[in-house]
Amino acid sequence: MSRLYPLLAVAVAGTLSGCNFQKSGTIAEGEIVQFPPVAHGRMMVRATAGAVLADPLGSTVAGGRMLTRRTLSQMDGVIRMIGMPTPTGVPEPGSEAFEVYLDQRKLSSRTWGKVDLLVDGNEFFPEFIRSVEGARSSVDSQVFIFDNDDWAVAVADVFKRKSREVPTRILIDNMGSRVAHMIDPETRQPAGFHPPPFIGDYLRDGSEIEFRANMNPFFLADHCKIHIIDGRQAFIGGMNIGREYRSEWHDAMMKLEGPVVLQLAHVFKRHWQREDWLRNWTLRNAFPSRKVIPTIRTAADQIPLRVLRTDVATQRESIAQALHLAISGARRRVWIHTPYLTGDEILGDLTAAVRRGVDVRVIIPGTNDSGLMHAVNFTGAHGLIREGARFYSYPKMCHLKACLIDGWGMFGSANFDTLSLRLNRELNVASSSDRFTGLLEKRIFLPDFGKSARITEARAYRESLPFLDALGNQL
User: What is the CATH class of 4-472?
Assistant: First the structure.
């Protein structure tokens, strides 16, 4: 989950995460400001206190459910050792029988949509900016991180101009964005550029933008990326707004049209409403109205899609549930692309698949944005490689989150870890359509296997830190 991992590591593991970040103040002058772990800790305390004041009921419920989930995640390894029941009779992922199987478990109803994949910032941002500039009725945008570097400011200017023409709402994760503000991009920004202290203030200044920042009770985050243009077009995936995503990291977004956009717009609306203190204090958010959303195919080029979510506050775990069932039913392959692979649950599922003879392959970053997560990734990789799985090291930071399991695929904002699968708000889409899985295979997995180096057992052992396993299981 990118920049939040070092912050969480401060709270749990102190100096193990390497959290003495630096942020350039006036870049042309090389002015450096230190942000020690103590400052990060204060930010977390303030975030929780502010969330409790703005939403006492919701924050308390979310905190209690988070503690329960974290306890269960620590017990998962023990439960597996003594014998935890695994699903039997799961239909082959990618078959209609598998989709019906998910329907029966009420993992959200299927809808329809047209999909396209935009790989890396040079494909996504020009298309996204064209869509925003061409909006005729509304722009709704949500990201985990809206950075304050030169590229983020340029995108903010596009939003500000558009807000004078159509209603424009922007929702960010407060903690994720503020932590990102503390860290410089990898590449040098223009001489003389002065980053605004907080992007929210910059977005509101001289514009008609409606802006909200997600509350972070007990370090919980909203990690979703959702952009809705005119209620007709949507973009989802792993990319935030900032220089890393424009030109430094490997990542992707999915462009969607059709009935699925109505479901995604409803998700954005609920997230937006949950940051309204008046709705929280009058308990209107505690009893949300259930909206019937059409799921009728409206064009020949649309395919069946399933919107999957994680949200500990509302006990949504459909991403984890669908993933667990798909891996348990896999006959041929489990291919995963992720920056963070942690947690006994997912590692146990992959181990079981390898032992059944399934082709398990995982692409992880060769250079991770968090030293802690790099070590945790390689710790899990070492055990799986010994079992027969194949791990690949992408040559730079890759932030993609995707999987192909037999003929079923999933793509979105969720990492393959405890935070994304069980705690934070996340948003994925999944499908058994050949169009969907073909896009993931041809545009992401096959090219990236070719660009990545096979990780040997010796390298995985050398770069792993087994004593961090308990911490990694919480991330």
Answer: alpha beta
